[in-house]
Design brief:
The complex is a heterodimer. Chain A is built from 17 helices and 24 strands. Chain A is an alpha+beta fold. Chain B has a two-stranded antiparallel ribbon with strand order 1-2. Chain B is elongated. The chains are: A alpha+beta, B mainly alpha.
Chain lengths: ~625, ~210
C-alpha cells in the first residue's frame, strides 16, 4: 500500500485552500442584502463595524468615478438622485422589452436598444448584473471584515419564482464579484432550512416571503432532515415597494404641482418610513421637502390598509393557487413562516393568519432568516451534513411548436435536478434545419410566456415531412438552471445550448467584464480550475490505491512499476500547481494502469459480483438507517 | 404480472478505477466512485415491486434514502465528473418518484412497460364513445354553470368518479386485464382534467367583477 501515497480519508488535499476560502450565505434582496456564516455554534449574521446587519441594496455611481454601496449610497440620494440605483433586483434577467412595460414603476433611465437592459448613469451604462455585482462585492467585503479572512464561496439565494434568466443573471453577478456560487437556493427554502434546523420543525410548512420587490410562497414537507418542496409560486413584481409607491403617490397627489424627475425617489424614501412607522403607530404626520417646497401629510393605519389591500390580496390568491397545486387545504398546513421585511406590516400578518386559520411564525428575524438558511446550506456543502434539500422548478419549461403553441416539456413543481426528452419532427419535405425556441411559463401560447433562448439544429438531410426524429432534452440542474440539447436520431446531428438568455450577458461580455473587474476574478477562476484538476488528480490516485488494495494480486511487476512511475509524475505535477500538466499526468496514469484494469475486468466477468448495489441500500432503508455514500468511507 | 425486482448482474467497468462493477451498482465496491444511473425501470430504481398498488409512505422513504446518497449536494466537494454523475442519478430518481407517486402516471407507465403505451394523452384520440359523449356533455354544462355551488357540484362529481376509477384500475391491474386498465386510465385522465377545469372556472367566478 505504500506504492501510492494518498491522503487520509476526509483530509483536505490542500489545507490552505479550505482555510482561505470560507463559505458564507448571501441573501441578495431587493431592498437589503444580508450575509451570514454557519459555524459549529449555529448560523449568525455578519455585521458591519457599527453592528448593522442590513446592507441597503443601493448603489451610487459618484461623479468622481467612485462607486458606493449601502448607507453611503442612500445618503447620496439627496444631492445626486440620478446616479443612485435602488431595487435593481427587479430588473435581473429582464429584457429591454419587459422593462419598458414596467417603466411606469421604475425610476431608472434606460438606454435605448434591444437586448440586455442598461441604465443611463452619467457616462456609464451599467447592466443590472454589474450593479448587483457591486452590491455582492460590498457584502463580501463586509463579511471578510467581520471574519478577518478571505471569503471566496457562497450560497446565494434567489426568489423561488425567479425564472431561468434571472437565476443566471444572479450567478453572473456573483462571478463578477469574485464569488464562486456553491449553489443558488430559493429564498423560502433557505428560510425553511433555518426554521427546520433551529426549531426542529416537522410537518407541512408554508413559507410566505414578501420582500421589497418579490413575493414567494412555498409549501414544504419537513421530515427528519429532509426539506421537500411540494409546490411553489409567486410574483417577481410584487412586494413592499408596491406599498411605498401607493403611499408616495398619495402624498404627491396631495401636494399637487409639478414633480421633477428626481423627486419621486425622495418621496419613496419618505413613504418607506411612513410604512414602517404605521406598522407600530396608529397614525402620524410627515413633512415632505422637495425642491425647496415643504408639504405636510397625515395618514392613519386604516387608510394605509385601504391603499395596500390590493397587492396583499393578490399574494393571497397566489397562495391559494399553490395550495391547490399541492392538493392541500389551508388546514393541512402545520405551520406558517413569515419571511421578508414586508411581513412586518400588520395587515399582511392578519390576512395570512386568517387564510391559514393560525397565527404565523416570525420568531426568527424575517430580514435575516434567508441569509441564515443560506449559511447553513453553505456549511452543508463545504463540510458535509445530513440534511437534504429537494427543491422544484417554479415555472414550466417548453418549446414553441407550430402556430405559436407551447409544448411543455417540464411541468412546474417538478423536483430538480431533472432531465426530460421529447421527440419532435419536421413539417416540410426536405426541411434541413429546425429552429428551437425555448420558453418558460404557464400559458398556452408563446407570446404569453417568457422567451429564454433560440437555437437551430442544422444539417438534417432531406427527408419527407414527419420522417425526421429530433429528440430535444431539457436538463435542469440543482441550481434551477436549464440546458437544452437537440439530436436528430436517424442521423445523430446534434446541437445544444446552455440557456444564456439573449438579454443576459454573452460569454464574451462576461469574459471582458471579468478581465476589467478590479477584483482578481480572472485569477480566481484560474485558481478554481486548478483546484478542480487537483481534486480530480486525488480522485484518480485514490481510485488506483483502492484497486491495488483490493486486487493487488492481479498486478504484474511491470504494472506496478509503470503505475508507480506515472503516479509519481502526477504527484509532482500536482504540487507544481500546473493545471494542464496535472491533466496530462492524470491521463498518463490512467493509461499506465490500463493493463491492470483489464485483468481485473477479465477475472470478474463470469464471476458473481458484489458491488454496493440496490440491495444494500434497500436493507438500510428497511432498517431505517440512512446509508452513507461509500465514497466517504475511503 | 411480474412482481420481482429486476436484477442486473452484468459487469461493466467503473469509470473511475476502471475495474469491474455490477451493472446495477450505485457505487463502485472497490474505489467507491458513484456510478451512472443506467436504464433501470422506475420500480427497480426505487427498489419496489412492479405493481399498481404501492405504499406511498414506503415510496417516500425509499426516495429520500436514495436521494440522501445520490443528490449532487452530497458531492459538492468531489470532482466535476462525480458531481455530474450524481446529478444524473438524482434526476433519474426524481423522474422515477414523480412517475410512481401519482396513480395516473403510474398506471400509464405500467401500461407502457407491458407494451401498451396509452395513446390517449388528449381527448381527441379517445375511442371510448360513452366517455366521449359524457365528456362533451359535462364540459358544456360546466361552461353554463353560473354559481360556485353549481361548479362545486361538478367538482365533487369528478372527484367521486376519480376515486371509483382508481378502485377499478387497481382490480384491473390485479387481474392483469390491461385493455381494461388502459380504458380506465383514459377515464381517470379525463376526470382529472374536468377537476382542473372546475378549478379554473371556480377562480373565474370568485374573481370580483369590476
Amino acid at each position: 500500500m505504500n506504492l501510492l501515497q494518498i491522503h487520509e480519508p476526509g483530509a483536505t488535499p490542500d489545507p490552505h485552500a479550505e482555510e482561505q476560502e470560507l463559505a458564507i450565505g448571501i441573501d441578495l434582496g431587493t431592498t437589503n442584502t444580508v450575509a451570514a456564516i454557519a459555524g459549529a455554534a449555529g448560523p449568525e449574521v455578519l455585521r458591519a463595524g457599527d453592528g448593522e446587519a442590513l446592507l441597503p441594496s443601493v448603489v451610487h455611481y459618484r461623479a468622481d468615478g467612485a462607486v458606493e454601496v449601502g448607507d453611503a449610497a442612500v445618503a447620496g440620494l439627496a444631492e445626486d438622485p440620478g446616479a443612485v440605483i435602488a431595487s435593481v433586483k427587479r430588473l435581473m434577467g429582464r429584457g429591454a422589452e419587459d422593462v419598458r412595460r414596467l417603466a411606469g414603476h421604475l425610476l431608472f433611465e434606460l438606454l435605448p436598444g434591444a437586448g440586455m437592459v442598461r441604465l443611463k448613469i452619467r457616462e456609464r451604462a451599467p447592466s443590472p448584473v454589474e450593479i448587483s455585482a457591486e452590491i455582492l462585492r460590498a457584502a463580501k467585503a463586509r463579511a471578510e471584515q467581520a471574519l478577518g479572512r478571505a471569503v471566496g464561496r457562497a450560497v446565494v439565494t434567489v426568489p423561488a419564482y425567479f425564472d431561468d434568466a434571472a437565476r443566471s443573471a444572479t450567478k453572473d453577478a456573483a462571478r463578477l464579484a469574485g464569488i464562486e456560487v456553491l449553489r443558488l437556493v430559493n429564498e423560502p427554502t433557505a428560510a425553511a432550512l433555518a426554521y427546520g434546523l433551529d426549531k426542529q420543525a416537522e410537518g407541512i410548512f408554508a413559507v410566505y416571503d414578501l420582500g421589497g420587490g418579490t413575493f414567494d410562497i412555498s409549501l414544504l414537507r419537513l421530515e427528519k432532515g429532509v426539506f421537500q418542496v411540494l409546490a411553489t409560486g409567486g410574483d417577481t413584481a410584487l412586494g413592499g415597494d408596491d406599498f411605498d409607491h401607493a403611499i408616495a403617490e398619495r402624498f404627491l397627489a396631495e401636494r399637487g404641482g409639478a414633480i421633477s424627475p428626481s423627486e419621486p425617489k425622495q418621496a419613496l424614501l419618505l413613504a418607506r418610513r411612513v410604512k414602517e412607522e404605521l406598522s407600530r403607530a396608529e397614525t402620524g404626520r410627515w413633512r415632505l421637502a422637495l425642491g425647496g417646497r415643504v408639504s405636510e401629510h397625515e395618514l392613519d393605519r386604516a387608510t394605509l390598509e385601504g391603499l395596500i389591500a390590493a397587492p396583499i390580496e393578490r399574494s393571497l390568491a397566489i397562495t391559494r393557487g399553490v395550495l391547490a397545486d399541492a392538493d392541500l387545504a389551508p388546514a393541512d398546513v402545520d405551520g406558517v413562516v413569515l419571511v421578508g421585511g414586508s411581513t412586518r406590516v400588520p395587515l399582511v400578518r392578519r390576512r395570512v393568519a386568517e387564510l391559514f386559520g393560525r397565527p404565523a411564525l416570525a420568531d426568527i428575524d424575517p430580514d435575516a432568516v434567508v441569509a441564515l438558511g443560506a449559511a447553513l446550506q453553505a456549511r452543508a456543502l463545504t463540510r458535509g451534513s445530513d440534511t437534504l434539500l429537494l427543491d422544484v422548478i417554479p415555472l414550466s419549461l417548453g418549446l414553441e411548436t407550430m402556430g405559436g403553441i407551447v409544448e411543455k416539456i417540464i411541468d412546474r413543481n417538478t423536483p430538480i435536478p431533472v432531465a426530460k426528452a421529447q421527440v419532435f419532427t419536421t413539417y416540410q419535405d426536405g426541411q434541413g434545419g429546425m429552429l428551437l425556441h425555448v420558453v418558460q411559463g404557464e400559458r398556452e401560447t408563446v407570446d404569453q410566456c417568457r422567451s429564454l433562448a433560440r437555437f437551430e439544429l442544422k444539417g438534417i438531410p432531406p427527408m419527407t415531412a414527419g420522417a425526421a426524429r429530433t429528440k430535444v432534452t431539457f436538463a435542469v440542474d440543482a441550481d434551477g438552471l436549464l440546458t437544452v440539447e437537440a439530436e436528430e436520431e436517424t442521423t445523430r446531428v446534434r446541437a445544444g445550448v446552455e440557456v444564456r438568455p439573449s438579454y443576459g450577458l454573452s460569454d464574451e461580455e462576461m469574459a471582458r467584464m471579468l478581465r476589467d473587474s478590479l477584483e482578481n476574478a480572472e485569477a480566481d477562476m484560474q485558481r478554481r480550475l486548478l483546484i478542480e484538476a487537483q481534486v480530480d488528480a486525488d480522485r484518480v490516485l485514490q481510485a488506483l490505491a483502492a484497486a491495488l488494495a483490493a486486487d493487488g494480486a492481479l498486478a504484474t511487476e511491470e504494472d506496478r512499476a509503470a503505475i508507480a512511475a506515472a503516479a509519481e509524475k502526477l504527484r509532482a505535477a500536482r504540487s507544481r500547481e500546473d493545471r494542464d500538466l496535472i491533466n496530462g499526468m492524470i491521463e498518463g496514469l490512467e493509461k499506465a494502469a490500463l493493463p491492470f484494469a483489464q485483468r481485473r475486468i477479465d477475472r470478474a466477468i463470469g464471476q458473481a459480483l458484489a458491488g454496493r448495489s440496490l440491495d444494500e441500500v434497500e436493507a438500510s432503508v428497511a432498517s431505517g438507517a440512512a446509508p452513507v455514500p461509500a465514497a466517504d468511507h475511503l | 404480472m411480474d412482481m420481482t425486482v429486476e436484477s442486473d448482474d452484468s459487469v461493466v467497468a467503473c469509470w473511475s478505477c476502471h475495474g469491474p462493477v455490477a451493472g446495477a451498482a450505485l457505487f463502485c465496491h472497490t474505489c467507491g466512485a458513484v456510478q451512472p444511473p443506467g436504464t433501470r425501470d422506475h420500480f427497480a430504481r426505487l427498489g419496489i415491486s412492479r405493481s399498481f398498488e404501492i405504499d406511498a409512505g414506503d415510496l417516500d422513504k425509499r426516495y429520500f434514502a436514495f436521494q440522501r446518497n445520490l443528490h449532487p449536494d452530497r458531492f459538492a466537494r468531489r470532482s466535476a465528473k462525480e458531481r455530474a454523475i450524481a446529478e444524473s442519478q438524482s434526476a433519474s430518481l426524481n423522474q422515477a418518484y414523480e412517475t410512481l407517486k401519482d396513480p395516473l402516471s403510474r398506471a400509464a407507465y405500467l401500461l407502457e412497460l407491458v407494451g401498451r403505451p396509452s395513446a390517449a394523452v388528449n381527448a381527441a384520440t379517445v375511442e371510448d364513445e360513452e366517455l366521449l359523449t359524457e365528456a362533451l356533455e359535462n364540459r358544456e354544462a360546466l361552461m353554463e354553470a353560473e354559481t360556485t355551488d353549481a361548479v362545486d357540484e361538478f367538482g365533487s362529481r369528478a372527484a367521486a368518479a376519480a376515486v371509483r376509477c382508481l378502485a377499478d384500475l387497481s382490480s384491473a391491474f390485479a387481474r392483469a386485464d390491461f385493455p381494461e386498465a388502459d380504458r380506465l386510465t383514459t377515464q381517470l385522465r379525463y376526470w382529472r382534467k374536468l377537476g382542473e377545469e372546475v378549478r379554473i372556472k371556480r377562480r373565474l367566478l370568485e374573481t370580483p367583477q369590476s
